[in-house]
């Protein structure tokens, strides 16, 4: 087990060292190609039940508490991102916790950031993504091969959660 973790960590470190650092203006990602042939359908629990969560304004971006495979993380609410995106740091953490396994690694994926630059990442399968009382299953996500990449909650997940309403006065995001 330790050998697998070390190998995966070295792989992500190697790829992140060969890539330029991204600045805050190029953090939005858009998937443009996938080499994966594995098909996993999304399912949504509690589809009829509305839920609201508090957003935190951090340096001008809104973060939303999301539970991924049982682990609470703060994601940037990013309508410009096409999918859920996490850094290799979070991917390694989830792997070490046993909440993602080798079977959840789907293969390479290419994505484009807001500057138009194309990068290679790794597509993984998240067993569970939960916001408040709403939960979706079998969600494809991108791992950015950069240790400092932000956590982005993008359109592929947002569309599955349903209608989104934002109250900027109270910093509340609601899903219907």
From TrEMBL:
InterPro entries xrefs: Aspartic_peptidase_AS, Peptidase_aspartic_dom_sf, Retropepsin-like_bacterial
Compositionally biased tracts (Polar residues): 31-45
A GO term, aspect molecular function: aspartic-type endopeptidase activity
Entries under Pfam families matching the protein: gag-asp_proteas (PF13975)
Signal peptide bounds: none
GO biological process: proteolysis
Protein name: Aspartyl protease
Region (Disordered): 22-45
